[in-house]
């Protein structure tokens, strides 16, 4: 990360006053990659070995157009050759020191890998600026209106409409007023800082060193209020166009959402494959990052809802199980009662038959007694007595 920070601090030295555009094929990124800072107009110094080199011999674009004989490609090739050869032998930017060489180049891979950190760094800068202003507000209201610049919304045309919601307040982009200034500025790499000299806020891009004072633009206190392109556009801040021409974050390139690639036709893919400049820019990577975040969050929300649903179902199952247990208990209690009743009934029926048997036995013994008593003779004698 230090290589990256050192690299960006070198890029920042290529200010409007000192850096003159000769050709779009030479940018501060090239020179900063090889260790050079811009110390004076067209003069560059290696931050490690202090060797200097000048680009003042290179012709301007207008001269090349006038004199058709100038071979700019050859001049650039020679310039790059001398830039690499100018380092001292022991310098870590010297290409001969392969083992120890320091080299940093702002690649797409680097931006993709670090997007979350880069975006959050820019986004959180507004939070700290808010806090800073709040403490100052207690003594004076002066900075209160300086919080956010009015945004020129013409930049929205470079982002397909279906992705505008990613920059909106609540991710439901219904009207232009719900555009979130913080999200928008952060997506275009604008970090808010307090200028140490003026005490006023400045918007900074770390990737091209552009620094604009907030007071250059119409500002508003609301986080979601903006001015559209048709209304005082010259006073509004265009987050896309304010970068320097070479900025890795904003350099013109059509939007290529990863999700859209699947819907491309083969013809379009072939056309893209043949295109050598496949490099995409920072804001594009950032929109894709926000899209991934949104997809991840909505998937997470759906998973959360599904888990909740499962928990609800589990509760219901538990309730049913409890009810069933109670039912089982009641059934078993009732069964036990019936069995007991049946048993007692059996006992009763058994004792009835015993009683019956006893009765029969008693009857028999009565009969026997009666027989022994010789009732017939008694009856006979009784008859005789009656007739007499
Ligand atoms: Zn050097
Ligand atoms: Zn920039």
Automatic annotation (TrEMBL):
**Domain C3HC-type, which positions?**
1-125
| Subcellular location field | Nucleus
Molecular functions (GO terms): zinc ion binding
Question: Coiled-coil segments, which residues?
Answer: none
Output the Pfam families linked to this UniProt entry: NuBaID_C, zf-C3HC
Provide the NuBaID C-terminal domain boundaries: 184-290
Q: Does the keyword Nucleus apply?
A: yes
Tell whether Magnesium is among the UniProt keywords. Answer: no
Gene Ontology cellular component list? nucleus
Checking InterPro entries in the record gives: NuBaID_C (IPR013909), NuBaID_N (IPR012935)
Keywords on this record?
Metal-binding, Nucleus, Zinc, Zinc-finger
Q: What name is this protein filed under?
A: C3HC zinc finger-like protein
**Provenance organism:** Tetrahymena thermophila (strain SB210)
